[in-house]
């Protein structure tokens, strides 16, 4: 209780009365007194006493007048007024009460009675002001609570013990679609239509449930709320019972949130994690899941599953040449065509830059894997138009079947990949099934890779040399280095079986270096034997693409101390089809070292001679496919004739490869081709054999 001292103001024109009353109440409160009734009101305004004791009959201004004035003032009207009167007639009393007085003190004043009266009134007054403070506090708290409930982002609904809504905040009104007036007074499950988000089945309202089990409950999983207007949102809610001190249920409170956005976000996140951004197709992760599911289903159903791995031929080249934007457009348009070709029941996925996969289960469609593959190939053949340009594409497709050739999802992925490479290697624009042969080839590939790595680590690659002849003089003038992989048992693996593999695995750089070093060492050996043989070393496209290649060659030349004029590097047309500037720079750098550059397999590529002329090439090697047929096919002879003429026009040295017959030997000599190599003269031989046959003797044709 407020222990501030209370104030009593006494107004009486008779000082004696003031003294008596003062003596009666001075122990209860601070006393202010005044005998001049004209100044009384002013004093009341200043002191705002807790109680006024007023004499009725006073000169100048009566107690009634003062009472009237006090009651007329908003800030003073609550101050209780006690009249001191000698009139005991009821008329004055009624008037006093009408004016708002609360009690009387009779004259002559009985001090004890006066004190008790005043004491009571002061006590009432004190309780009244205390009450109003409490009231204010409660109002404030209620206001605070309302502001909070209205402002929070959660929906809040309170019910009584019967589940009838007693409160609903604005968020809850918005989510349920019921306003305060519609909601309050109705059963909570009428205004909260909660359902399972998947099955749409109705569910017990958490407000009712929490009262039933008498503990807080939360429903967070897969719940949706349907509003009065039919709008759906995903919600998470918690509900608590309101219990009284005896533990009886008085009602409940439900708090719920709209989680639609976070649910949508979660859905979006899983979509992103499982799909390709560009095409919107499932990615490798999702494809894997789908294969596993199909396989599991198939186990029971005894059906087969086919996986087609689809790769765009030469896409890397297109992408590099035309830019990534065009590359993306191509991918997008291929993905659309494939979707159409594979049919809606197949699963089409994008599993790599230019790789797609199509999963077919037998029950999906009547189409077999080869029919789908065929229609995919067909769909890609139609030219693609981008920015007014036409692009001609083709695909290579590898097919793996479960359970015929693969026992798991991983194996299907691997086998379709192998089969796809087979399709590429055998000419592209075709499909190929993974077969037993391929399985063997795959095993062999793994074994070869191990052998190759071992040979690289042990510096034990072998280089054979095939002599090159001056056709007019019939004399050895040089040789081509041809790498061989020979294991401990003496088994020879030919380069065609490990060069492509070393290119795929990146081992080609180490391989190339080892062959180059051994070839240069061989040059030095020939020089020692007084033979200035020019040795030609094959170089793969990937080596040319390495910007440090010329530097590495220079280092080998320096470290082996050979005359660069005795070294020739053979590059194929495909090596010149990559980045033009970069390739040209490397070739110029090589050329400036003083070695010569030969264009290998000339005639098999697609590049025009005017394109090739921009590179510093010294030698043209006519591919053996033309030489092979020149005896029998007039057209092949025409081509060789043309190449020889072109070569001499361009001041290039001509070398014919793969001479196998005497007729070829003479024809080429007659056409003006200066040099040649081939089984007719000599097969590639080991270094020892070459040394024995060509370094220690006068060169005679075998
Ligand atoms: P290539 O550069 O066209 O090499 C000529 C190939 O023709 C050699 O096969 C050689 O043995 C073969 N040959 C020579 N004369 C005749 C003939 O009269 N008739 C027939 N039918 N064939 C003949 P090889 O040694 O199996 O090499 C195959 C390919 O492997 C080479 O083709 C070359 O592209 C690549 N290669 C070989 N060694 C290396 C190397 O050290 N580095 C790189 N990057 N590639 C190499
Ligand atoms: Ca060659
Ligand atoms: Ca060749």
Key features of this structure:
single chain, 702 residues, alpha/beta, Rossmann fold, Beta-Lactamase, Alpha-Beta Plaits, 4 domains, eight-stranded mixed β-barrel, six-stranded antiparallel β-sheet, 26 helices, 27 strands, elongated, binds ligand C2E, binds calcium ion
Task: Please tell me about this protein's structure.
The protein is built from 26 helices and 27 strands. The radius of gyration is 53 Å and the shape is elongated. It has 702 residues and is α/β, with parallel strands linked by helices. It has four domains: 7-132, Rossmann fold (3-Layer(aba) Sandwich); 152-264, 2-Layer Sandwich (Beta-Lactamase); 277-434, Reverse transcriptase/Diguanylate cyclase domain (Alpha-Beta Plaits), CATH 3.30.70; 447-693, EAL domain (TIM Barrel), CATH 3.20.20.450. One calcium ion binds at residues 480, 538, 570, 600.
